[in-house]
Amino acid sequence: MNTPPEPSLEPLEDARADPVAYQLVVPLMLIALLNGMHSPFTALLVKMAGGWYPPFLPPMLELVFYFAQILVATLTLILAGIPAALYEQAAGTGRTTYASMGIWLLGAALLSLPAIGVVKELL
After folding, report:
1. Considering the domain boundaries, does residue 102 fall inside one?
2. Residue 41: exposure state from Cβ atoms within 10 A (0-12, 13-18, ≥19)
3. Residue 2 belongs to some domain of the structure
4. Phi/psi of residue 92, each to 5°?
5. How many domains does the chain divide into?
6. Alpha carbon 82 to chain centroid distance?
7. What is the span of the domain harbouring residue 55?
8. Does residue 25 lie within any of the structural domains?
9. Nearest to 100 by CA among 86, 115, 119, 116
10. Which strand (E) or helix (H) includes residue 66?
11. Is 3 within the bounds of a domain?
12. Going residue by residue through the chain (123 aa), what tens digit of pLDDT does each one get?
């Protein structure tokens, strides 16, 4: 008879990601939020709100602007993650490494260059 293995009290090691790689998550999120707040594409999305803003929400400019910022920040994370995912597949590591997170951070920074120009004008 096959008996199941006894449960271990040791924590399972996460083989999917390098723990050091997660040090870049906070700067990545900050860059995406900066891009969402100051990107010229946010103003473009506010102007085109009739196409993406849900009709069941109240048509308040503050809500439209808030959701436009969140949408731009989310799109920044998604688009910047594509090169990082391609690198992970090409490298064959099958896990998130410090290099792939660095590529993700660099991609987000490049996508945020128009927002940095807007911030310079504000200062």
Report:
1. yes
2. middle
3. no
4. 70, 20
5. 1
6. 11
7. 19-122
8. yes
9. 86
10. helix 61-91
11. no
12. 677 777 666 655 656 667 777 888 999 999 999 999 999 999 999 999 889 888 898 989 999 999 999 999 999 999 999 999 999 999 887 788 889 999 999 999 999 999 988 878 887
